[in-house]
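Per-record layout

source: Pipra filicauda
name: Aquaporin-5
length: 264
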Amino acid sequence: MRKEVLTLAFARAVFVEFLSTLIFVFIGLGSALKWPSALPSILQIALAFGLAIGSLVQAFGHISGAHINPAVTIAFLVGNQISFPRALLYVLAQLVGAIAGAGILYGVTPANTRGNLAVNALNNNTTPGQALVVEMILTFQLAACIFASTDNRRGGGGSPALSIGLSVTVGHLVGIYFTGCSMNPARSFGPAVVTRRFSPAHWVFWVGPILGACLASLLYFYVLVPYCMALSDRLAILRGTYEPEDDWEEQREERKKSMELTPP
């Protein structure tokens, strides 16, 4: 673990998480500002968040994985896909990046347009319990999409950036009516810090996404595709020494065959 942290590649990855979260929050919140000339539509906001994520995953995914979301990072940790030091510094970088992105947006936006800077809140008489379930489900589908689309051991093509971007978009198309749609504790935390508006239900935007993402992690890595990674590989990830095998398909077939009963 120590060797992993003391590398230039690790420092670059942490910086990229900070930078990408800054840009994501700036663009996403910026799309939801209430300009006097034209109020934003639900579709506009959803596309802005989704396209921003898709662009950032395409730009920075090969450097840090482009988590851009503490819930996703924690879920990767729960699934033994990253080490604890990496997860910790990623989350810190994401939170600082979110504050920086919201702060820059606040500074460049006219005072009559800032409003509450699109702070997440319970809408349309939604209760905290209802909001918690909504955030869990929406983040669950996002995290499951991320795990599946970025799993380089699975066959088939497709674009992870496009898939993840569409997953964020569809989440916002539904979630905005309930909570303004978080699915990301950093996205909720940044504007709340800058505007100093922490609602009594702010905890929902931490607990809901983290629970949803962790449930997706447990389901994907331990139930649906438990043969994807051997225990020794998971331990190597925690030590920061894991190197993916090119012959994963062959290993998977061998594991599947080993679990089959030998016919009499």
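summary: Residues 14 and 196 are 26 Å apart (CA to CA). The longest helix spans residues 84-108.
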